[in-house]
Inverse folding.
């Protein structure tokens, strides 16, 4: 895996070991295959190669954290997993689906099944915790009964 030297991808904290690339396709929930991400030059700023030839797998059922210094590529990595960004090269596979190849309706449907917790998440102070959890389900058109069961 080639990434900025301050980018660390690790399994559960107790393991403190890098993610194995030997995880089989069936065992992997997320798989990066030779992924690169380059942001094009913008105004007077040069292009930025955020990720280069990334290969790794996150096993199904694991808890994984991504840590590193500012500018190491953490956000790019996460944005590729949830399809907010497309890789410049390679494939990002989540639960057997090539997220990097999806667009439009297919991508939106896939994104609904990808749960992410961001460092700076924002809850609506006017809602309870349960109401905050229910909000995206309401927006997606779920019935009140189904929302109550899910929450």
């Amino acid at each position: 895996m080639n990434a900025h030297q301050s980018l660390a991808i690790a399994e559960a904290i107790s393991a403190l070991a890098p993610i194995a690339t030997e995880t089989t396709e069936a065992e992997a929930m997320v798989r990066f295959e030779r992924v690169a991400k380059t942001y094009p030059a913008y105004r007077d700023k040069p292009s930025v190669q955020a990720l280069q030839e990334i290969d790794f797998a996150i096993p199904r059922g694991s808890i994984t954290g991504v840590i590193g210094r500012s500018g190491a590529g953490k956000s790019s990595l996460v944005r590729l997993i949830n399809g907010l960004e497309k890789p410049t090269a390679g494939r990002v596979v989540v639960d057997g689906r090539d997220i990097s190849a999806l667009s439009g309706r297919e991508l939106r449907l896939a994104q609904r099944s990808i749960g992410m917790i961001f460092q700076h998440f924002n809850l609506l102070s006017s809602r309870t915790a349960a109401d905050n959890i229910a909000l995206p389900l309401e927006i997606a058109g779920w019935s009140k009964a189904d929302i109550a069961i899910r929450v």
